[in-house]
Design brief:
Elements lengths: L1 H26 L8 H22 L2 H21 L6 E4 L2 E7 L2 E3 L1 H20 L6 H21 L3 H17 L4 H20 L2 H11 L10 H13 L24 H33 L4 H25 L17 H19 L21
Antiparallel strand pairs: 1-2, 2-3
Helix pairs in contact: 1-2, 1-10, 1-12, 2-12, 3-4, 4-5, 4-6, 4-11, 4-12, 5-6, 5-7, 6-11, 9-10, 10-11, 11-12
Length: 375
């Protein structure tokens, strides 16, 4: 597994380095101090590196013990963001808590808390996951609680992302598709009702369906993102030469940094970025498949899916393949909480890989099926 670990870390370091360079380019026109965002991101990178090392070296049995308490703390933090004086309201969303000089986003930490809680439950109940009461009921109630807290912020993007990841983990753990379909139908109905009563979200959906009609409104970012890709062509206009970052793309340093990469460095650079996320996905699956136990297996699978699915959604949004959602591009977009959590997930992947089974061993537990699991 050492080769897999090396490739995984190399891919992450390349993405983080490219992100820092592109962050400087994308944000240099936003403040008089062109280094403002870069310096803040650099501080978070140092913190994230320390967190990744801790997660990679910590006793994984201890991680299992804190899984549920950590999920509980994440739920409390999601409640605190709605309390005036503790949470911060930015652009109509309550998603941030200020801790001294730093501002953290509890919804990011909820991702890892939910993964560990789901992995803990599956590892304890693997034999009964196909049943309703002893298998799927409790984790789905927990998912509903977290989804409700995220929707109150509101954070529709993170709600969709975490729900997809947890449902995939439950399916991989042995839950019957019919049970998932039932809960999925209820959740989808509630989500649609909330969308219909949210004019901003409906505006984004209409803009996605007909961007030209809403080019001066809800589709402004999408149209300019597509213009950036078109201007970049195959080889780009050159590092620092983007036109769209001059306030045509309001979120050029966060959610819409990928179009700036396409404009300045071209199609080849964007394909390399996509390839690196594919490398992370393959490495994560290899680690999950060779994990020593169910908790490590589903923790690794959850971390892999959370990072790569978030990247996929971000890429789909900025290319007009999905309605606009506020999800950062992992390791590249500006955002300390996102960087810290993603780095911690990579640390957990490395931790699981260190204790992985020998790939040549005759007896290994399958990822999606384990009939020999003892009670």
């Amino acid at each position: 597994m050492q080769r897999t670990i090396t490739v995984l870390i190399a891919a992450v370091l390349i993405l983080a380095t490219a992100g820092l360079v592109m962050l400087f380019s994308a944000s240099m026109v936003r403040y008089e101090n062109s280094e403002y965002f870069v310096l803040r991101q650099l501080v978070w990178m140092i913190v994230a590196l320390l967190a990744a090392v801790v997660c990679a070296r910590i006793d994984f049995h201890w991680v299992r013990k804190i899984a549920l308490p950590l999920a509980g703390l994440c739920a409390v933090a999601l409640v605190l963001v709605r309390i005036p004086g503790i949470g911060r309201d930015i652009n109509g969303s309550w998603r941030w808590i200020r801790l001294g000089p730093l501002t953290v986003q509890p919804s990011e930490f909820a991702k890892i808390g939910m993964i560990l809680a789901a992995a803990w439950w599956i590892s304890r109940r693997r034999r009964y996951m196909h049943t309703f009461k002893r298998g799927i009921l409790v984790p789905m109630l927990g998912l509903g609680l977290f989804a409700g807290l995220l929707l109150v912020e509101p954070d529709f993007g993170t709600t969709v992302l975490t729900s997809l990841v947890i449902v995939t983990l439950l399916y991989a753990g042995g839950v019957r598709p019919a049970h998932l379909a039932g809960f999925g139908a209820v959740g989808a109905f509630g989500f649609i009702v909330l969308l219909l009563h949210n004019p901003n979200r409906m505006g984004r959906i209409f803009a996605f369906l007909d961007p030209e009609k809403y080019a001066q409104g809800e589709a402004w970012q999408l149209i300019n993102a597509l213009n950036a890709f078109a201007a970049g062509g195959a080889y780009g206009t050159g590092l620092g030469n983007s036109i769209q970052k001059y306030f045509y793309l309001p979120e050029a340093h966060t959610d819409f940094i990928f179009p700036i990469i396409g404009e300045e460095l071209g199609l080849i650079a964007t394909l390399i970025i996509i390839l690196l996320f594919m490398v992370i996905f393959v490495c994560g699956l290899r680690i999950a498949a060779r994990a020593n136990d169910d908790f490590g297996r589903f923790t690794a699978l959850g971390c892999t899916l959370m990072i790569t699915l978030q990247a996929l959604i971000n890429l789909a949004v900025v290319t007009g393949s999905m309605p606009t959602k506020g999800l950062a591009l992992p390791f590249i977009s500006y955002g300390g909480s996102s960087l810290l959590v993603c780095a911690s997930m990579i640390g957990l992947l490395v931790n699981v890989a260190h204790t992985a089974r020998n790939p040549k061993a005759k007896k290994r537990t399958a990822l999606f099926k384990d009939k020999k699991r003892k009670a």
